Amino acid sequence: MNQAWLPDAFADCVLQWFACHGRKDLPWQLAPTPYRVWVSEIMLQQTQVAVVIPYFERFIGCFPNLGALATATEDEVLQHWSGLGYYARARNLHRSARIVLEQHGGELPEQLEWLIALPGIGRSTAGAILSLAYGQAHAILDGNVKRVLARCFAVAGWPGESRIQKHLWALADELLSAAARAGLQELHLKHPNWPGTYNQAMMDLGATVCTRAAPDCNHCPLSRHCLALMTNSIHQYPQPKPKRPLPRRATRWLLVQDPDGRILLEQRPPSGLWGGLWTFPEVSLQESSAHWCELHLYQTAPRVEKLPDRQHSFSHFHLDIYPERLLLKSAISQLRDSDRHLWVALKRASTMAVPAPVKAILLELLAMAKASKNQLLDCCSHRPA
Ligand code: SF4
């Protein structure tokens, strides 16, 4: 630990800063029940506050409590997560809600071990729930907190590495418990529920002051003791993940439309990439779309239009997408794997549980349909009487 700090001075600086500059009116901070804190913490993993807010409000509007979430179908849950990405978070949230309802009478456990045993809840998320909702003194270590600690205490190395992670956890724990030991009484008097407030303050500090690209050290409550600032080496901390080129994969998406303009969607298997979401049928680049139609729709060679290629990046690979629009000449009476497929109007499809690149294409198809309808109306209105 940086010896320049008194044991409780760190928490005190952070708490005083939070009292004046912290964010206190985020939707999940108003009436912070354990359930609302939990949902917000899961949504905030790998996603910024401004993106999360509208999703959180819609999600809570539809599933206002744990019981409502637990009794919803997975498809409904995914539909309200659609566009937020990292869909395993939504599936785990849903599974955990069911477990809590069955095994804990619908109340989120107040013990760290029991929370960590639930799908999708790691040590940091459990610490956030217990401190923010129950006022318990547990540290957190999300990306923002890692950055503040790595800079303030000049912790070299990539925080994803387990040795560095352990070091940062030890720091986070030590700061919290030192503050509790040395100044618990005073902190309690000054800041009711201070562990939750302290953790929120650390997250806010990382998100709004000690930002990744442009830390505002002039307005930072830790600047007098920050080792990275003192040694003019802020941008060396935290060290980025060692770069390895991500592999590329390619897929051909089939945007199959019947004569009524409805689109064919396919539900993905429950686990794995985009598990449980609706996407377009896909084939490898070696397979022909005409062959897929014969095999699955019992129809020969529809009209094929190629749409512009696009790319979607995941954390572990890049996906090159080659969309083809297949316009069927007649309606489909038979369909192979009909329990995994659905014919659906374009407008409705765009509101279903679909991943972002599928939604983008659906909106393009809707715009194309609208443009051709307008063109048709235009032609009719200029036709001589
Ligand atoms: S002084 Fe600057 S680098 Fe250090 S913790 Fe504050 S904002 Fe981050």
UniProtKB/TrEMBL annotation:
Its EC number is 3.2.2.31. It catalyses: Hydrolyzes free adenine bases from 7,8-dihydro-8-oxoguanine:adenine mismatched double-stranded DNA, leaving an apurinic site. SMART domains: ENDO3c. Pfam families: HHH (PF00633), HhH-GPD (PF00730), NUDIX_4 (PF14815). Residues 43-208 form the HhH-GPD domain. Signal peptide: none annotated. GO terms for molecular function: hydrolase activity, acting on glycosyl bonds. The keyword DNA damage applies. PROSITE patterns: ENDONUCLEASE_III_2. Binds 1 [4Fe-4S] cluster. CDD domains: ENDO3c, NUDIX_DNA_Glycosylase_C-MutY. Its cofactor is [4Fe-4S] cluster. InterPro entries: A/G_AdeGlyc_MutY (IPR005760), DNA_glycosylase (IPR011257), Endonuclease-III-like_CS2 (IPR004036), HhH-GPD_domain (IPR003265), HhH_base_excis_C (IPR023170), HhH_motif (IPR000445), MIG/MutY (IPR044298), MutY_C (IPR029119). Keywords: 4Fe-4S, DNA damage, DNA repair, Glycosidase, Hydrolase, Iron, Iron-sulfur, Metal-binding. PANTHER family: ADENINE DNA GLYCOSYLASE. Adenine glycosylase active on G-A mispairs. MutY also corrects error-prone DNA synthesis past GO lesions which are due to the oxidatively damaged form of guanine: 7,8-dihydro-8-oxoguanine (8-oxo-dGTP). Belongs to the Nth/MutY family. This is Adenine DNA glycosylase. The lineage of its organism: Bacteria, Pseudomonadati, Pseudomonadota, Gammaproteobacteria, Chromatiales.
